[in-house]
Amino acid sequence: MKVAVLGAGAIGAYVGAALHRGGTEVHLIARRAHLAAMREHGVRVLSPRGDFTARPHVTDDPAEVGEVDFVFLGLKANSYASCGELLAPLLGPETAIVAAQNGIPWWYFHGLHGHPLEGQRVETVDPGGSVTAVLELRRAIGCVVYCSTVIEEPGVIRHLEGTRFSLGEPDGEISARCKVLSAAMIAGGLKAPVEADLRNDIWIKLMGNVAFNPLSALTRATMAQMCEHEDTRELVATMMTETLAIARAAGCDPGVSVEKRIDGAWRVGHHKTSMLQDLEAGKPLEIDAIIGAVVELAGLTGVPAPALRYVHAAISLLDHTSKVPVGSH
């Protein structure tokens, strides 16, 4: 089996290193200092489960890699529409694309046979079909990441917690390709269950992301601080309750209570969310898939979601103003 990791950042390099350790042929596609360090020293993983070093092939040119069986997308969802040039050399007739993204994926309403919204495009994450044009629906394998990693320094990945990468086909089939990928990930030391309905996993994770990510960027607070501040905790609970209602209206039942989800976040401690980290690093914020698409689904399903709408408005403005020089209009 041949796997390319397109976007070998913190999560992508960790998955690639694990797959390589398990015996899979892996090609990491990375850039700049991280690329040079991995080429010279391999990928060093520092983990409470045991440190290890893997030395897969590393490049910044996908044409060096050629066609693969699986492309693991380690890119942020807001760059999917523009990754076609990098992706094209990796695609053969049966290549699957595994999108390890946060939030609502572009394929969300694909494969929902008999659902009233089957085939509906989520414009927030697939505007005008621009993502579907690059990432064909037939290639998509969903992936929900329950894993936290950071780039400690170029070529060095610190694994903080979690090893679960839930996999699933949009139509719910327990497919041969999912089983093959799952086995390879398990061989590398990861948990990789193949789910008959990955959308439930999407909503369980999204309940936390939809509230904590934008609020952390707006307040500069850690997970624990948001949970311990009474008024903010109440706002988080309201946003989660609205999200649960939207999920159920869309045909899913995540099966987790709001309080349990908040308590789980509190136990993470003084951790900065990915959106706050992106804000501090001057990177674009991953707003569309994490909260914008949820607001869009509220409209499609007729669920009132005032708290989500207000927070979405505020974080969208922050994303805009953070890119505008002070004094500009």
TrEMBL record:
Residues 197-316 form the Ketopantoate reductase C-terminal domain. It comes from the Bacteria. This is 2-dehydropantoate 2-reductase. GO terms for molecular function: 2-dehydropantoate 2-reductase activity. Its EC number is 1.1.1.169. It is an enzyme of class 1 (oxidoreductase). InterPro entries: 6-PGluconate_DH-like_C_sf (IPR008927), 6PGD_dom2 (IPR013328), KPA_reductase (IPR013752), KPR-Related (IPR051402), KPR_N (IPR013332), NAD(P)-bd_dom_sf (IPR036291). Residues 3-104 form the Ketopantoate reductase N-terminal domain. It holds the Pfam family ApbA. PANTHER family: 2-DEHYDROPANTOATE 2-REDUCTASE (PTHR21708:SF45), PROBABLE 2-DEHYDROPANTOATE 2-REDUCTASE (PTHR21708). Keywords: Oxidoreductase. NCBIfam families: PRK06522.1-4. It comes from Amycolatopsis plumensis.
